[in-house]
Structures are given as structure tokens and as C-alpha cells.
Amino acid sequence: MSAYLQVCIQGFFFWLAYDLARFPVIPLYAEKIGLSPQAIGFAVAASTITGIFGKFLSGGLSDSLGRRVMMVTACLVATVAPCGYFLATSGSSLILLRLFHGLGTAIMGPVGRAFVADIIEEKRRGERLSTYTAATNLGTMVGRWLGGLLLFWGGFFYPFLASSLAAVIALGIALRWPHEQKQSAHFILLLKKMRNGFREVGQNRIILGTSLVEALQFLATGAIDAFLPLYAKSVAGLTDWQVGSLYGVQVATTLVTKPFMGWISDHVGRRPQIMVGFLIGGFVVWLIPWQTSFLVLSLLVVLYGLSVAISTSATMALITDVCKREHYGAAHGVFGTLFDMGHAMGPISAGFLISAVGYRYTFGCYSLLLFVASLLFSFLIQEKRRLS
């Protein structure tokens, strides 16, 4: 079995494990132990907070310590964390466990992508990175579906147990990777190498600019994830199964089309694809709050999922194109931190805007943001590749 196929399988089982113990399990478990709605929100968001602060550090560390040791650490966290949830009987203990569980994803996110970038040739970079992220997204989808099924079937014990078992499979694959020869036990040398990596990334306008526009896209995506279901139910009058279908169709479209869009970016170029993805996304976001038909909303959601696939399949490859191989971890760490910040801020900012000006003006603001981001990207970022 090729190393690339193994890392895709590892990514699938890692994110399967994570979401088996996330949605819808954690909100319901938090409610069961008596948490308030505000505390439930903090418990759900805690792992994302770890990601915001941890991704750029873990990516930089993987450049110095090696990918294997970091991926093994992430899988160990994912194996142990679900076993501790039954010990959480208060809001503070559950939030602490969620912060710890988020450490695993904060490591695996950038390090997994950096590992893929290490082992593939440049001419297939977009396709292979996109296929890897599609495998992780599939793990997320299956984890949410299976977690809900196990919860309905036998209570909280089964999704937590299944989460730990899936993480053990990912850990078994991670332990099979060969030991790397670049581990440095000297703390000063480790810090110096990390500093050099972050200096290169921080001075690279293409990496920073691409990461920032990706954060803007995830800002809009976070708002849609949080408030499209509420709009569809309260304004459009859709039924519960129709509301659920909208989310599933969006994620499925992104999942299915991502590898193909990555292949296109390898042959057409990253920059035009990112701009087109943002333009399509901006147009769709503007149209959504003017529609109440299930079929029309479904079509718009499909187009939005396509726009995300178009842009994200090119952004990940672009930041790798212009970065030195020894700093791939730092680049993907900064990239992950910024889009996590955007994703986390989307629901928060949309909540304030919707209460103040309603759905149409709010979605219009995010639409304008995507249009402006596309224009800024076209003027500020000139595509070029650096062979590593």
C-alpha cells in the first residue's frame, strides 16, 4: 500500500474518531449533565479555540521534530480523550476535556497536510492535497452520522467507545511511519528552526494573503452553517428533514468535487481558480435570503459547496507551491490558524448582524466580503511556483 493511500486512511479514521464524539454527541451530553445553553456553546467551541492557538505551533514543531512524532501524539490524544468524557460532571471539566481533545486536531490538521506535501510531486499537488482533505471530510460526515446512530441505539457509552477505537486504528497507521532523522533534542536549535520557518512564512505575501482570503471564505461558511438552518425553518418554512438535507447536500458537493477541482488547479493554475470560487460563493450567498423554495435553496447550497471546493483545493496547494519544503509545517500551521479564526468568527458576527439588520442585509454583507476578497486577491497576489 502506498504511503499516500495510508495517510488518507489515517486521516479518515482520525476525523471519524473526532466527530464520533463531537456532533451531535457533545451538545446532548452537556445538556444531560445539566449545563446551561451558554456553557454548552463554550463546550462545543472549546476544541476550535485550541486549534486557533495550536495549529501554527504544531505545524512549526513538525518541521523540526518530524511529522511522525507529531501525528502519533495527535492520535494518542484522540484515543485517550473520549475515555475521559464520562469523568466530566461539570461545565469546567467538560470544557477542559474539549480543550485537550482539540489539541489532537490542532496537531493533525496542519501536520497531515504537510506530510502529504512532503510525499507527492509538485505537478499533482492540488489533486492529492484535495483528495486527502476529502478523505478527512468523509470521516467527519460518517462520524456525525454514526455518532447519532450509536447514541440513539445505546446511549453515550457507544459513540465514545467507537471514537476511541477509531483513533486506535489511526494510531496504528501513524506508528508504522518510519522514524525521521531530523529530531533535535537541543531546545535552542529547535526554537531557532521554528523561528526561521515562521519568519519565512511571515514574510511571504502569497502565503499570508492566501491564508487571509481563505479565512474570509470560512467566515462566510461559518455564518451559513450556523444560520442557514434557522433561516430555512423560520423564514422559508421548510420541514426538519429538508433543513437537514441542505447541510448534507452542501458538504457532499464539496466532498465529491474537491479532488477534481484540485486536478484542475494543477493544470489551469491556482490564482484564477481561487478568484472564481470566491465570485461564485459571493453570488450564491447574496441570493440565499431571497429564496424560500426547497429546490432553489438546494441548488444554491450545491453551488456554494462547489465554490468552496473550487477555492480551497487551490489555496492549500498554492501556499505549498511557494514555501520551502523544510517549512511546509509552518505554512500549513499559519494557514490552519487563520481559517479556524474565520470559521469561529462567522457564527458570532452573523448572530449580531442578523439581530440588528436581518437575514438579507447580513448575507449581503458576507456576499460583498467575498467579492472584495476576490478582487483584492487578484490585485495583490501574483502566482508563482517554487520547486522544492
Mean pLDDT: 89
Tally the helices: 13
Radius of gyration: 20 Å
H and E string: HHHHHHHHHHHHH
The outline comes out as globular
Please write the CATH class name of the largest domain: Mainly Alpha
Distance between the termini: 25 Å
CATH fold-type name of the largest domain: Growth Hormone, Chain: A
CATH superfamily of the largest domain: MFS general substrate transporter like domains
Which structural class do the helices and strands define? mainly alpha
Instruction: Please mark out the parts with pLDDT under 50 across 5 or more consecutive residues, or reply none.
Output: none
Which strand-content bin applies to the residues? under 5%
Oligomer: single chain
Overview features:
0% strand, Growth Hormone, Chain: A, 388 residues, 13 helices, mainly alpha, single chain
Could you outline the blueprint of secondary structure elements for this entry?
Elements: H1 3-20, H2 25-32, H3 37-65, H4 67-84, H5 91-119, H6 125-154, H7 157-175, H8 187-202, H9 205-234, H10 240-268, H11 270-287, H12 294-321, H13 328-380
In short:
With 388 residues, the chain is an all-alpha fold. The chain has 13 helices and no strands.
Explain this structure:
The protein is mostly helical. The protein folds into two domains: 3-183, Growth Hormone, Chain: A (Up-down Bundle), CATH 1.20.1250; 199-380, Up-down Bundle (Growth Hormone, Chain: A), CATH 1.20.1250. The protein contains 13 helices and no strands. It has helices spanning 3-20, 25-32, 37-65, 67-84, 91-119, 125-154, 157-175, 187-202, 205-234, 240-268, 270-287, 294-321, 328-380. Helix 1 (3-20) packs parallel to helix 6 and helix 10 runs antiparallel to helix 11 (270-287). The longest helix is centred in the C-terminal third of the chain and has 53 residues, at 328-380. The radius of gyration is 20 Å and the shape is globular. The two termini are 25 Å apart.
